[in-house]
C-alpha cells in the first residue's frame, strides 16, 4: 500500500495542471491589455484565513458555513491566442488569479442567488470540485467552467476543505466525507427555495463522489424528483458502489450524465490505490448502467497531461456540456456523439472534431 501511495503522489505531481505555466513572456504594454473579471458565487465550509501575501482567503481546515463571491481576473498572455487553437494540447492563453473575495451574510447569500436567478431563465448550476484543490484553485476552475459554458449568474461553487496538497489524498477523502452533510443541506435548501427541477448539479473527480453520496442521503426523504441534471465528470468513485447507489438516487433526478475517459491518468492511479475501477474510467473499464447516459471521451485524446480536466480544457467536451445544461438536449440530440453498446446497454462515444 505504501508503494502504491508513492506511485500516486509521483504521478499526480507529474500530471498536475499547475505544470501548465506561462509559455511566453508578456511584453505587451499594460494599457493595451484587456483584463476580464469573472465573479463566482461560492459556499464553503473551509476555515477563514484572511488575505495577505501568499495566503489564501480560506484554508483547508473544516469550519462553519461561509459564503460570498470570489473575483477571478483574466489577463491575456501576449501572442498565445495566435497558436493555442492550432495545437493538439492545451496551453494557457491567460493568467488567472484571485483578485478579491467579498463575504456575505447568510441572508445576503440567498438574496444574491435570488437576484441573479431572476436575470436569466436557466437552472441554477451547483459545481463541486475534486481533490488537491485549494480555495483559489476551486474558484479558478469554477470560473473557467462557467465562462466556457456561458452560465454566468447561474453557477454556485461548493468549495469543501480540500487541502490543495498532492500528498494529502486520504485527508481529502476524509474531509469530503465530512462535507457531504453540508452539501446535502445546501442542495436541499436550494431545492426548497427555488423548486424541484430548477437545480442542475455538476461533480468533478472526488466531488462527484460527494455529490452522489449527498443525493443518496436525500433519498431517505422519499423518491420525489428533485434535481434536473446530474453531471458526473471523471468521478473518482468506486464504480460498483455507484451501481449499488444508483437505484436510490435515480428517482430524485431527471437525467444522469457520466463523462469518462481511458486517458485519465489520475483515475488510473486512484484505481491502483483503491484496488477497484473508478466510475470515471473509460475504454475497457467503462461503466454503463440502464437509466443514465454515459459518454466516453477517450477518442478525443488528452489536451493536458493528466487527462483529468477535459471539461475545462477540451472545447469539444465543453460544447457538449453546454448543450446539455443550456439547451436541455439529451445525448441522442447532441452532435458529435456516436452510439455504441456494452453489456446490452447503449452508451455514446464522443468523436473528435473534423478538421
Characterize the structure shown.
By secondary structure, this protein is α/β, with parallel strands linked by helices. It has a single domain (2-15, 104-350), classed as Rossmann fold, CATH 3.40.50.1820. 35% of the residues lie in helices and 25% in strands. It has ten helices and eleven strands. It has helices at 2-15, 80-84, 106-117, 135-149, 169-194, 206-218, 239-249, 265-274, 310-313, 315-327; strands at 36-48, 58-76, 94-104, 124-128, 155-159, 199-204, 227-233, 253-260, 293-296, 337-342, 345-350. It has an eleven-stranded mixed sheet with strand order 3-2-1-5-4-6-7-8-9-11-10, sandwiched between helices. Helix 6 (206-218) links the parallel strand 6 (199-204) and strand 7. The radius of gyration is 19 Å and the shape is globular. The model is unreliable at 1-32 (pLDDT under 50).
Uncertain spans, ≥5 residues at pLDDT below 50? 1-32
In spatial order, strands of the major sheet run 3-2-1-5-4-6-7-8-9-11-10
Total strands: 11
* CATH 2nd-level architecture: 3-Layer(aba) Sandwich
- Backbone CA Rg: 19 Å
H/E element order = HEEHEHEHEHEHEHEHEHHEE
CATH class call: Alpha Beta
Largest sheet: 11 strands, mixed
Mean pLDDT: 86
Structural class: alpha/beta
CATH superfamily: Alpha/Beta hydrolase fold, catalytic domain
Count of DSSP H/I helices: 10
Note the beta-strand portion. 25-35%
What overall form do the CA principal axes indicate?
globular
**CATH fold-level label:** Rossmann fold
Distance between the termini: 45 Å
| Secondary structure: helix percent | 25-40%
Count up the domains.
1
Amino acid at each position: 500500500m505504501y508503494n502504491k501511495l508513492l506511485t500516486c503522489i509521483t504521478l499526480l505531481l507529474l500530471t498536475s495542471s499547475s505544470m501548465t505555466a506561462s509559455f511566453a513572456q508578456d511584453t505587451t504594454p499594460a494599457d493595451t491589455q484587456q483584463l476580464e473579471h469573472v465573479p463566482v458565487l461560492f459556499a464553503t465550509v473551509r476555515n477563514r484565513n484572511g488575505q495577505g501575501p501568499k495566503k489564501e482567503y480560506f484554508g483547508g481546515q473544516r469550519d462553519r458555513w461561509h459564503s460570498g463571491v470570489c473575483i477571478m481576473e483574466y489577463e491575456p498572455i501576449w501572442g498565445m491566442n495566435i497558436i493555442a487553437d492550432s495545437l493538439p494540447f492545451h496551453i494557457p492563453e491567460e493568467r488567472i488569479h484571485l483578485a478579491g473575495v467579498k463575504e456575505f451574510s447568510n441572508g445576503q447569500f440567498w438574496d444574491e442567488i435570488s437576484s441573479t436567478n431572476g436575470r436569466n431563465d436557466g437552472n441554477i448550476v451547483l459545481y463541486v470540485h475534486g481533490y488537491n484543490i485549494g480555495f483559489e484553485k476551486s474558484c479558478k476552475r469554477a470560473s473557467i467552467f462557467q465562462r466556457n459554458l456561458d452560465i454566468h449568474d447561474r453557477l454556485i461553487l461548493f468549495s469543501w476543505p480540500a487541502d490543495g496538497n498532492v500528498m494529502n489524498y486520504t485527508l481529502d477523502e476524509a474531509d469530503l466525507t465530512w462535507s457531504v452533510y453540508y452539501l446535502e443541506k445546501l442542495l436541499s435548501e436550494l431545492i426548497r427555495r427555488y423548486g424541484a427541477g430548477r437545480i442542475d448539479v455538476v461533480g468533478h473527480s472526488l466531488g462527484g463522489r460527494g455529490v452522489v453520496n449527498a443525493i443518496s442521503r436525500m433519498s431517505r426523504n422519499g423518491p420525489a424528483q428533485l434535481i434536473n441534471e446530474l453531471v458526473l465528470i471523471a468521478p473518482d468513485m468506486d464504480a460498483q458502489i455507484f451501481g449499488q447507489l444508483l437505484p436510490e438516487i435515480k428517482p430524485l433526478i431527471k437525467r444522469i450524465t457520466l463523462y469518462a475517459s481511458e486517458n485519465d491518468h489520475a483515475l488510473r492511479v486512484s484505481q491502483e490505490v483503491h484496488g477497484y475501477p473508478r466510475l470515471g474510467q473509460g475504454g475497457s473499464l467503462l461503466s454503463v448502467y440502464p437509466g443514465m447516459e454515459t459518454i466516453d471521451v477517450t477518442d478525443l485524446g488528452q489536451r493536458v497531461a493528466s487527462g483529468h480536466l477535459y471539461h475545462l480544457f477540451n472545447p469539444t467536451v465543453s460544447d457538449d456540456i453546454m448543450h446539455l445544461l443550456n439547451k436541455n438536449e439529451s445525448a441522442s440530440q447532441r452532435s458529435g456523439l456516436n452510439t455504441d453498446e456494452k453489456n446490452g446497454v447503449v452508451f455514446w462515444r464522443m468523436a473528435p472534431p473534423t478538421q
